[in-house]
Amino acid sequence: MSEKSATLAINEQMQEYVRNGVPVINLGFGEAGLPVLPVLRDLVAAHSALNAYPAVQGAVSTRRAIAGYFQRRSIPADADLCLLAPGSKAILYGLLASIPGDLVLARPSWVSYAAQAEHLHKNVIWCQAPASAGGIPDPQLLPSVLEEARRSGFDPRVMILTSPDNPSGTVASAEQLRALATTAESQDLVVISDEIYRDLAYDQAGYTSVAELIPDRTVVTTGLSKSLALGGWRLGVARFPATADGQALHDRFIALASELWSGTSILLEPVVEYAFNESPDVVRRITRSRHLHSTVSHAIYQIFRDAGAAVREPTGGFYLYPNLAGTGLARRLGAHTDGQLSATLMDRFRIATLPGSAFGDLPERIGLRIVTSMLYGISDEQRLATLDAGDPLSRPSVSQGLERIREVVLSDSPS
Predict the structure, then answer these.
(1) How far apart are CA 6 and CA 287, in angstroms?
(2) Where are the alpha helices (DSSP H) in 188-310?
(3) For residue 310, which of 99, 206, 236, 323 is within the disulfide window of CB 3.0 to 4.6 Å?
(4) Residue 198 has pLDDT above 60, yes or no
(5) Residue 315 and residue 293: Cα distance in Å, rounded?
(6) How do beta strands 190-194 and 218-223 pair?
(7) Once rounded to an integer, what is the mean pLDDT over residues 381-403?
(8) pTM tops 0.85
């Protein structure tokens, strides 16, 4: 693995276009697209004199806040088995490094899972996601996929589930998770539940975590990059099972973390504590953000539906994953692979997307990962106005972006 992450590469490309004044419809980089909640900025300023090295796993009060967050979601959590780290991506890598065996993933999956496994010399065992929701292996297919993998000499030991999912913007059902939990138990798989988008699931009451079903074999990861738009602050957290195996995994992880990143920025620990204690202002911001993401995602979803794409209706986060094979758009642009279509949209129309093959999908399916949250505006003032708008679709940046997407995706001869 010698290439930069596809998501980070496209973000840097978009930043270069902005610096050069080139207008681009950015549907490529998975950033929440909203300003920082003011109280969190104030917390950083108030604690900016702190400069001591932190505890590797985080302060006790911070870990208690994290444990409380999980407990309020019916996930058993012990503060001594919770931790924070500089981003959930670092946690995921540390977990994969600390758990032996090969990795089971849905196809498609977020770009970094397979890339991290490759860096760690682990095999990836792909299982197609079901038609109804991405982020999970199809429960009906998984047992036979695992059987075939073992016959081929692989050693499946850990499975990552993502709900809501990136790239599809969908939430796995409780029934699907129950079936996967049964397979995980019978096949002795450790489950990593990546719930970085959990608080952006549109139906919070109907959300189920696999950690509610099999808490003793599930590690849950999340963070503040999506729900509170703090991607650049690099704040991730994890909850480990309260079992002997969970304690051993936690201890191996902490040993690795102590050599890799020492600890999370101490001046940001109060932010984590405040956010995971879920004060009313935090809850209000996340609730409003969730509504905005849902509104804009559904508007773009309808455009791709009108274009004849196979696309799941979004149920969480700010993504869509249309498959455009056989559509008029693919034919008009002469695209036979996802890479060709993504490149043409960028080169001819300045619409940035990521091809599905970056997420492990098959290029001939012509899947594109569409980010809907970068249409909210360029400045913080514009983004906040979009967040506060009664009708966000009427905001200039959103309406103009939708109009351009509609023109290119649906027009017989877009310009």
Answers:
(1) 30
(2) 210-213, 244-260, 269-276, 280-306
(3) 323
(4) yes
(5) 10
(6) parallel
(7) 97
(8) yes
Measured distance CA(346)–CA(24) in Å, rounded: 8
- In contact, 105 and 128? CB cutoff 8 Å: no
Tokens of 322: 């249309």
Q: Which residue has the tokens 């050693």?
A: 155
Question: Residue 188 — φ and ψ, nearest 5°?
Answer: 55, 50
C-alpha 268: how far from its chain's center?
A: 21
Burial of 2 (0-12, 13-18, 19+ CB in 10 A): exposed
Both tokens of 267, joined, read 């001046």
Q: For 150, how many CA atoms within 13 A lie in the half-sphere containing its CB? A: 8
Domains of the chain: 6-30+281-410 (3.90.1150.10), 52-278 (3.40.640.10)
Q: How far apart are CA 120 and CA 126, in angstroms?
A: 17
Q: Which residues contact 318 (CB under 8 A, 6 or more apart)?
A: 30, 32, 33, 169, 200, 293, 296, 297, 371, 372, 373
Single-letter amino acid, residue 66: I
Closest CA to 13 of 374, 383, 264, 400: 374
- Residue 384: count of CB within 10 angstroms of its CB: 14
9, pLDDT greater than 70: no
- 353-358: average pLDDT: 94
Pairing state between β 236-239 and 82-85: antiparallel
Instruction: Name residue 2's amino acid.
Output: S
User: How many angstroms separate the CA atoms of 162 and 197, rounded?
Assistant: 9
> Going by C-beta distance under 8 Å and a sequence separation of 6 or more, which residues neighbour residue 208?
172, 173, 174, 177
CA distances from 208 to 88, 172, 205, 235, 413 (A): 20, 8, 9, 23, 44
| Per-residue model confidence as pLDDT tens digits over 293-351 | 999 999 999 999 999 999 999 999 999 999 999 999 999 999 999 999 999 999 899 99
User: Two tokens at 346?
Assistant: 């960028």
pLDDT in tens, 30-53: 899 999 999 999 999 999 999 999
Q: Please state, for a pLDDT cut of 90, what percent of the chain lies above it.
A: 92
The tens digit of pLDDT for each residue in 134-150 reads: 999 999 999 999 999 99
Largest CA distance in the chain: 63
Short-list 401, 354, 409, 415, CA closest to 9: 354
Closest CA to 297 of 204, 190, 166, 173: 166
* Nearest-angstrom CA–CA distance, 164 and 149: 27
Which residues are within 8 A (CB) of 42 and not within 5 positions of it... i.e. 6 or more apart? none
Q: Which residues pair with 160 in a beta bridge?
A: 192
